[in-house]
Amino acid sequence: MSLPDGKRLTFPGPVAGPDIAAAIGPGLARAAIALRVDGQPRDLASVVDRDAAVAIITREMPEGLEILRHDAAHVMAEAVKELYPDTEVTFGPATDTGFYYDFARAEPFTAEDLVGIEERMREIVRRDEKIAREVWERDAAVAFFRDIGETYKAEYIGEIPRGEEISLYRQGDFVDLCAGPHLPSTGCLGQAFKLMNVAGAYWRGDPRNAQLQRIYGTAWANQRELDQYLHQLEEAERRDHRRLGRELDLFHMGEEAVGSVFWHPRGWKLYRNIEDYMRRRLDAAGYLEVKGPQLLDRSLWEASGHWENFAENMFIAESRDEKILALKPMSCPGHVLIFRNRLRSYRELPLRLAEFGSCHRNEPSGALHGLMRVRAFTQDDAHIFCMEEQITSEGIAFCELLLSIYRDFGFEEVGIKFADRPPVRTGSDEVWDRAEAALRSAVEAAGLSYTLNPGEGAFYGPKLEFYLRDALGREWQCGTFQVDFEMPGRLGASYVGEDGARHVPVMLHRAVLGSVERFIGILIEHYAGRFPLWLAPVQAVVASITSETADYAGEVARACTTAGLRVTVDTGNEKINYKVREHSLAKIPVMLVVGRREAANRSVALRRLGGKEHEALALDEAVARLKEEAAVPSPS
RNA sequence: GCUGCCGUAGCUCAGUGGUAGAGCACUCCCUUGGUAAGGGAGAGGUCGAAAGUUCAAUCCUUUCCGGCAGCACCA
How do residues A536-556 score in pLDDT, each as one tens digit? Predict the structure, then answer.
């Protein structure tokens, strides 16, 4: 057999995993938990009886960790069955950070139950039960699970394709239907796991089915990694934009307007900083800003197809004359109306209509989440009306614009997914072929790599989805670029081509930030509230040491304001220690402290947020320096 | 929307079947202090809303509203 490093091992006959590992080395023999045979993960105990590419999987490897987490799910199921025998087990896979198992049980699991289950899991690990694979005949397996009252498992076996092996795994008295592979024994799991929470989940993910109780846990190769993960969770909680939004007095949300944001002065300043920046970038990139109406007549939504498909999520209003109107959930129909308001020439194309579009969508209550998912939001939306042969160049230009904007906001890593035709769609396959080809050539011409997201395109066309990675390594989908051969025709948009005939333009839907509200939520968490100077709502606070220097503090603040800096003054009756603490907690990037010395020689003591030191600077110099540092990034 | 948990002062949280407390924040007074909490006093609550049980409900029950976690959803 061949090993990953290219070496070859020869055995006289069939050989089991532990012997292969032992033949390679004693260290590996101890660390081995599973095998990979010709790319397929297998139990360590499985026998290799032919020439194959074999690799030993250890718990430190990604696929080893996945097996370990899957085992954690089984151990949890065993613990639950021991403690609550009336529970039925269903599915229990590994996740990116751990595992879960869905249980069917009349009584809800409580937080205290979790403590007991976790204790029992640790005990099962200490028992070090052997985990054995058994291959069963299909009907016998169904009968077995039916006998022991596991109806979900029995049901599921019926859906496993004929010809596939029905494998059961036995550990102690617990038997579970599972494809595997698994660890050799429960002891191999180790103790680096923790149960996290319990939540509802539908059987097979379908809301029409019974709702099960899902217990989530996290599991790692060792205690250090577990601690690190738990620490990262704490860090995420510390950065939670809902918490920082309150602490930094940026915004609040309330039951008087569920799913909508009350922007406070500082939060709105941040919002405006972003909007102003985006406006400059759009202007420079040849977009024309427009503003469409909020409330539009039902007939338009019927024509666009929204009334039929999305009425559930639209807010409907009725006027006194009994007209039915809807708050717009997106801006595209309005932009088409602007486009087709007069006769258009091919000479005008590409025509890029941009809008900070206020949209309302009646999102399900359970989906709402701070700024990340709201019912009233602003899209940095634009629609490019163009000819088919312009799709590629517009796509390239958009990708460049987007990446440059993300960089300015401090996001260097951007992932791209290509979402192609969904099962339910409008338009012929031939049109989809052209749209997908044009989009693919655009992203490839821009020199960007992407992964495929099959079947996830919009119903009217394929799209690129742009994901940015934040400081905690989390991915957020923000930008999008969609090719639409449908809606312009549907809403009657056309232009006069070079040939004098009417043509239907292609429409490119695109957004960089996506929802401005959500993007601000991401920014807050990315920066943990410590915004770069150009974004910070308040860039500096001038703090006096004694009331004697209050006048000079005011003078310093005026000098800053004149230079275009956003500053506040603190001449309050508190010690400087208190002021430093207070403004540090408010995450103001810069403090300009003025005492008797500074007032005497017209200087300031400049202190950076989080810094331990301060720097004495002439007032003019400090202002000039801050002004330079606070410069808004501009398109080069 | 579904399941579970939660809702007491602006915030973080104690607490009780006999109508409530702490710390921080806030207001005032003293203090004028050189880089992460100076001292004192005061004010602040229809205990999410409604109905029910009870002599009596913030506490028990039901419904509703809102929040959190997950599921489903995200055109």
Answer: 999 999 999 999 999 999 999
A138 touches strand B (CB under 7 A): no
Q: Quote the tokens at residue A258.
A: 């569920």
Between the CA atoms of A624, A628, A630 and A635, what dihedral angle is there, to the nearest 10 degrees? 150
Q: Flag the least confident range among A146-150, A205-209, A362-366.
A: A205-209
Query: Beta carbon of A625 within 7 Å of strand B?
Result: no
Window A174-203, strand B contacts by Cβ < 7 Å: 197-202
Range 256-315, chain A: CB under 7 Å to any strand B atom = 258-259, 306, 309-310, 313-314
Task: Encode pLDDT of A158-182 as tens digits.
Answer: 888 887 888 888 888 888 888 878 8
What pLDDT does A56 receive?
Answer: 79
A425 CB below 7 A from strand B atoms: no
Give nearest nucleotide to A314 (CA–C1').
B75
Active site residues of A: 332, 361, 379, 381, 383, 463, 509
pLDDT of residue A12: 79
Helix (H, G, I), strand (E, B) or coil at A274: helix
pTM, entire model:
0.91
Q: Which of A335, A349, A362, A289 is nearest to A487 (CA)?
A: A335
Helix (H) or strand (E) holding A585: helix A576-585
Question: CA A573 → C1' B28, Å?
Answer: 13
Helix, strand, or coil (residue A466): strand
Tokens of A381: 């939306």
Structure-token pair, residue A252: 């609040």
CA of A212 to C1' of B2 (A): 11
Mean pLDDT of chain A: 91
Side-chain-side CA neighbours of A50 within 13 Å: the count stands at 3
Contacts of residue A257, Cβ cutoff 8 Å, sequence gap at least 6: A376
Q: How confident is the model at residue A155 (pLDDT cuts 50, 70, 90)?
A: confident
Query: What's the rounded Cα separation, in Å, for the pair A478 and A505?
Result: 26
Interface ipTM: 0.94
Residues 480-539 of A with CB under 7 A from strand B: none
Which nucleotide minimizes the distance between its C1' and the CA of A615? B35
pLDDT in tens, A242-265: 999 999 999 999 988 999 999 999
Strand pairing class (A540-544; A567-570): parallel
**A 444-473, residues with C-beta < 7 Å of strand B:** 458-459
Q: Give the confidence band of A200 by pLDDT, cuts at 50, 70, 90.
A: confident
pLDDT the model gives residue A636: 67
Query: Which value, to the nearest 10 degrees, does the dihedral of the CA atoms of residues A16, A18, A20, A25 take?
Result: -170
Predicted local confidence at residue A42, as pLDDT:
79
Question: Which residue carries 């024309």 as its tokens?
Answer: A288
With vertex at residue A627, the alpha carbon angle to CA A624 and CA A628, rounded to the nearest 5 degrees, is 90
Q: Specify whether the CB–CB gap between A289 and A282 falls below 8 A.
A: yes
Q: How far is the CA of A26 from the C1' of B60 (A)?
A: 65
Cβ-Cβ contacts under 8 Å for A379 (sequence gap 6 or more): A330, A331, A355, A356, A357, A359, A511, A514, A515, A516
- Tell how many helices (H) and how many strands (E) occur in chain A: 20, 33
Residue type at position A215: I
How is A442-454 classified by DSSP, letter by letter?
A: HHHHTT---EEET
